[in-house]
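Progress against Task 2.4 (sequence-to-structure conversion) is shown through the following example record, which the project officer requested during the mid-term review.
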Amino acid sequence: MRTRLLWAAYGVLATLAGLGLAHLVASLTDADASPVLAVGSAVIDLTPTPMKEWAIRTFGDADKLILVGSVLAGVLALAAVAGLLARRRTRYGAGLLVALVGIAATAVITRPEASVIDLVPSGVAAVGAVVALAWLTHEQAGAPASGGRRGVLIGVGVLSVVAVAGGVGGQLISRLRLRPEDVTLPDPTDAARALPRGLDSQVPGITPFRTENDDFYRVDTRLDTPVVSSEDWTLVIDGDVEREITLTFEDLLAMPMIERDITLTCVSNSVGGPFVGGARWLGVPLQDVLDLAGVGDRADQLLSTDFDGMTISTPLALATDGRDAMICVGMNGEQLPREHGFPVRMVIPGLYGFISATKWLTRLTLTTYADQESYWTQRGWATDAPIKISARIDTPRALADLDAGDVVIGGVAWAQERGGIKTVQVQIDGGPWTDANLGPDGGDDYWRQWFYRWPAGEGSHRISARAVSGDGEPQTAARAEPFPDGASGLHELIVNVS
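Structure tokens generated for the chain above:
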């Protein structure tokens, strides 16, 4: 057993050395070409939708870290098998390692925007792992159980350093590349009014009225944070247009800008979930950009594409119906953070992000749903998905132990493109619905804080909340999962009062 564990460890160490070198090389070129990230991205694409939704609900923002860790664990398990095979013949173990890298290389090269150069990290991983395994098995030849040969110890030490240095060095280089560019944003020609002071300091535990950039949710298919240069960036508008045009970043900055307070919501957000945030966005009206190309009379879909070929479809009628659809360059008074789409992203109020909020945008294609399907459409998600009216309870937390007496219940509610929030109501233990107090109004496309003072008596109690939109539509109590067009139902929780 000791001998088998030793040889299995050789396979793992050789693989880690190869992956460390590959990660270092990928950090200098394209992080997506890293073998582990490439396989992880392929796993995301192949994972059934219910399993994806479960992962997001269960792990939240940590879902990608867990996915990468799971992929790496699987690779290392097979690497251990390669080490055991190498005990019999080095070429057997080396063959399995090459096969593993071949799977990663396939995942790399089949990405929409992949090029041959993206295979270099996979090649480095294969060569590095095979050479490392050959070194270890050569030094151990003739005495597989001894583990005490000087050459083996030197090999283990050197390869450990290579694995750690490659992984850490790659991360450091990636962090350096993620530093924001020095971009001067223009002042808006149509500025948003000053956002009123929220209830943040008055109601402890309530969601801040404005979400800071670092706290804004991020849900997408990326396992890394893309590094896209504003100097090299262009936006192409093509398809059913009078003339195809290409805009540079400077061209976009020279156009009249608007500034709007808009709440974004992810379709994966469950009832009462965290994937919603309010921010101030700066950008060019989408209609102005489309007018430059001249929209034809056949298209019913706006197909937006990111720098790596990811596609999102938006009903053209909703993108051009007069709402403040934007091609954004700024967020909360700053340039877009890289994780939120720098240099340019789309923001369309009232629509879930999977049909409206393309990050790292590079192309807008006027087409039809019959001619082209986007990433999410191919996976069965809805093509028309307006954000559903919703109220969330932020405080108290579910299953909280509270003291009897005056308890403040508070949270946020949103109803974009429906006249905003008219009222929020609270229900205790299935009793009558009672109007809560509303916080300041940030506009129809922005969420609204609310609170309710409850004289809590002893016992276990169920708290429910519902919103009514400005046009009089009440939030539905019918329960629905996020797939295919967003979750619905009332946010309810149990608390204990003593």
